[in-house]
Specification:
214 residues, mainly alpha, 76% helix
Length: 214
C-alpha cells in the first residue's frame, strides 16, 4: 500500500485547484485542472483498492496514462507562447495519441505500456525545457514564484525526468527481489508528492498574483 500514499497530496492539490474558479483571469487549462485531478484521484483510489484485494491495475493505468499525457500536452500547448511551438506540440500530441492507442490495443496489451510512457515522458521533458528557454528570452523580468505555469512545468520536468528510467523498465520489476521493489515504490511515492505539491503551489500562488494586481 506504500505506493499510494501520495493520493492525499492529489486530494490537497485538487482542493487547491478549485481556487482557480475565483481568479479574475485564467487560461482554459487551469479551468480544466480540477477535473483532471478529480479523475486522477478516482483512478488512484480505485487502483489502491484493487491492489489491496489482489486485482490487476495494468489496464486502468495504461488507458489513464494516455489521458494523462494528452492533458499535459494540452496544458503545455496553452502555456507556450511561440505559435510554431504550439503547433509542434499539437502535432506530437496527435501522433502520440495514435501511437499509445495502438500500443495498448495491439502492442504491450498484456503489460504496462512502458514504451508509451517513455515516449510521452521524453516529449513532456522536451516541451518543458522549451518553456524555460522562452522564459530566458523574455524582454522583461517576471516574478517566477508567482507564475502558475512555472511551478507546473517545474513539477512536470522533475517528475518525468526522474520516472523515465523507472517506468521505462517497469516490466522487469516482476523478477526483482521484493526489497528492490519496495525501494522503487518509495522513490515513486516521493516523486509523486513533489509533483502534486508543485501543482498545489501553482494554484495558491495564482491567488497571490490576482490579489497583487487588483
Amino acid at each position: 500500500m506504500f505506493f499510494y500514499y501520495f493520493v492525499f497530496f492529489i486530494q490537497i492539490s485538487l482542493l487547491a485547484s478549485l481556487t482557480t474558479y475565483f481568479w479574475e483571469k485564467q487560461d482554459l487549462y487551469l479551468r480544466l485542472f480540477p477535473l483532471f485531478l478529480l479523475v486522477t484521484d478516482v483512478v488512484e483510489i480505485l487502483c489502491s483498492y484493487l491492489a489491496l484485494h489482489g486485482g490487476t491495475t495494468v489496464i486502468i493505468y495504461n488507458f489513464f496514462e494516455i489521458f494523462e499525457f494528452c492533458f499535459y500536452f494540452f496544458a503545455l500547448m496553452r502555456i507556450l507562447q511561440n505559435k510554431s511551438a504550439k503547433k509542434i506540440v499539437l502535432v506530437f500530441s496527435i501522433l502520440y495519441l495514435f501511437f499509445a492507442l495502438y500500443n495498448v490495443l495491439f502492442g504491450q496489451k498484456s503489460m504496462f505500456n512502458s514504451m508509451s510512457y517513455s515516449v510521452g515522458a521524453l516529449l513532456i521533458v522536451a516541451f518543458c525545457i522549451y518553456y524555460f528557454l522562452e522564459l530566458f528570452q523574455l524582454p522583461h523580468s517576471v516574478n517566477l514564484l508567482r507564475q502558475p505555469a512555472f511551478w507546473i512545468c517545474s513539477g512536470l520536468l522533475f517528475f518525468y525526468t526522474c520516472t523515465f528510467p523507472i517506468f521505462g523498465l517497469a516490466n522487469f520489476y516482476g523478477k526483482a527481489p521484493r526489497v528492490i521493489i519496495n525501494h522503487v515504490g518509495a522513490i515513486i511515492n516521493i516523486i509523486n508528492v513533489f509533483l502534486y505539491s508543485s501543482f498545489t503551489i501553482a494554484f495558491l500562488c495564482g491567488i497571490k498574483t490576482r490579489k497583487s494586481t487588483s
